[in-house]
Amino acid sequence: MLMHNTAPDLRDAAMAARRNAYAPYSNFKVGAAMRAASGKIYIGANVENVAYPVGTCAEEAALAAMIVAGETEVIEAYVIADAPEPVPPCGACRQRLKEFGKDDVTVWMGTTDGKEEATTIGDLLPGAFDAGYMARS
Ligand code: THU
Q1: CA-to-CA separations, 75 to 1, 2, 49, in angstroms, rounded
Q2: Ligand 1 atom with the shortest distance to the CA of 93
Q3: Which of 6, 117, 121, 122 has the most CB atoms in a 10 Å sphere around its CB?
Q4: Quick check: helix, strand or coil at residue 32?
Q5: Burial annotation 47-81 (CB, 10 A radius, 16+ → b, else e)
Q6: Helices (DSSP H) in the chain: which residue ranges?
Q7: Where are the domains of the chain?
């Protein structure tokens, strides 16, 4: 585990996003930040709903912000929460990250009190489904 921040700007952006998370049901606020190919950073937070399955993840929101801004490639990602250990993206968000980032893209996972770990999109989603499987369709 890395105990220092190697992407402080991305971490700060994810922390800022987390402050505006809407999580009254789980009380688990998550922030995410995506550095896109242009170098710009796009942020998102989880948005829950009284109809629980309707809630959305922080990574989902940050990726959507990137797409709306006209970018399609993530080159570094950061996810942060107030948790005992760094929180990994959920299964659906791993697939979302895979859509917009190469396998070697670093995904940072941080806690609000300073713990930090790094992984990659490829390591988060081994054996992923991709368009190659549809070659005969
Ligand atoms: N959540 C995220 O936003 N991202 C993750 O990587 C893990 C989970 C949110 C979804 C829900 O609002 C809350 O955290 C508890 O699962």
Answers
A1: 21, 19, 30
A2: 6
A3: 121
A4: strand
A5: bbeeeeeebbbbbbbbbebbeeeebeebbbbbbbb
A6: 8-19, 58-68, 91-100, 121-124
A7: 8-125
Q: What is the pLDDT of residue 2?
A: 47
Tell me the C-alpha distance between 120 and 100, whole Å: 13
pLDDT at 8: 92
CB of 44 shorter than 6 A to ligand 1? no
Ligand 1 neighbourhood includes 48 CB (under 6 angstroms): yes
Query: Is 83 touching ligand 1 by the criterion CB < 6 Å?
Result: no
pTM: 0.94
**Is 85 an active-site residue?**
no
Sign of CA dihedral 82, 65, 41, 127: positive
CATH architecture, domain 8-125: 3-Layer(aba) Sandwich (3.40)
Annotated catalytic residue, options 59, 60, 76, 116:
59
89 in contact with ligand 1, CB cutoff 6 A: yes
Instruction: Divide the 137 residues of the chain into consecutive groups of 10 and give the mean pLDDT of each group.
Output: 70 98 98 98 98 98 98 98 97 98 97 96 95 89
